[in-house]
Amino acid sequence: LKLHATGLGRETPQHQASMLAVAMILFVATASADCPGSRAMLHAKQQVHVEVSASCADVQQEMLERISGVKGWVDPHNAGTYTLLEHSADVLKAKRLTGNKRYTDLLNFAFEDTAQGCSLQGCSESQSFSVGDFSTNLCNLHNLYCGSQDGCPVVSKDLKYTESISGGSAGAGKDKSKCVVSSIRSLFLN
């Protein structure tokens, strides 16, 4: 009864919706220190954990070659453009501009050599308002390391890996089949 006497517990539906939106924004903003962050208050993001049967140096070499477009590599997710922002032995940071040149996403990777090869964590985060991303943030990450096991075009090293997708925002997609558009795939497989 005291709750009702103080006014607590009698919020309007609009107030409850506002509080839920604030809670979601705080969750997105604080879910992982490894994510690049975004100025957009409401935005999509996705995270991956990948175990690769290759050294981290080999994994990074393939990723850097894709970012640079070596051997004519084109982003198979609607021909976006990657730009390298930072690179060291254990970190790779990049941005991706969508093929239509309207949206930018930032991505971070952290690498650790293991007895089995390389363990990497990745996070991609939209830099503009977005709720549902149709798996774009997943594809931003996935397309830099994926290999023939997922139908991806390769520059030098056909990496073998297992990946898990978790920690993304509520509207972030998890559909890897969206990462390689068939018209782009045919450029590399023919």
Give the structure's gist in a few sentences.
By secondary structure, the chain is of the alpha+beta class. It has helices spanning 2-6, 13-30, 56-68, 136-142, 182-189, and strands spanning 45-52, 81-87, 91-97, 104-114, 117-126, 161-165. A hairpin with a 6-residue loop joins strand 3 and strand 4 (104-114).
Question: Mind explaining what this structure looks like?
Answer:
The structure is a single chain. With 190 residues, this protein is an alpha+beta fold. The chain has five helices and six strands; from the N terminus they run ααβαββββαβα. The protein has helices spanning 2-6, 13-30, 56-68, 136-142, 182-189; strands spanning 45-52, 81-87, 91-97, 104-114, 117-126, 161-165. The chain has a six-stranded antiparallel sheet with strand order 2-3-4-5-1-6. A hairpin with a 6-residue loop joins β3 (91-97) and β4 (104-114). The protein is globular and about 55 Å long. The N and C termini lie far apart (72 Å). The relative contact order is 0.21. Mean pLDDT is 85; it is low at 1-10, 19-33 and 185-190.
What is the helix/strand order?
A: HHEHEEEEHEH
The coarse overall form would be globular
Measured as a percent range, the helix fraction is 25-40%
- Rg of Cα set: 19 Å
Low-confidence stretches: 1-10, 19-33, 185-190
How does the helix and strand content classify structurally? alpha+beta
Give the number of DSSP strands: 6
Main pleated sheet: 6 strands, antiparallel
Strand content: 25-35%
The neighbouring-strand order within the major sheet is: 2-3-4-5-1-6
| Average pLDDT taken over every residue | 85
State the separation between the terminal residues, measured CA to CA: 72 Å
Number of H- or I-type helical stretches: 5
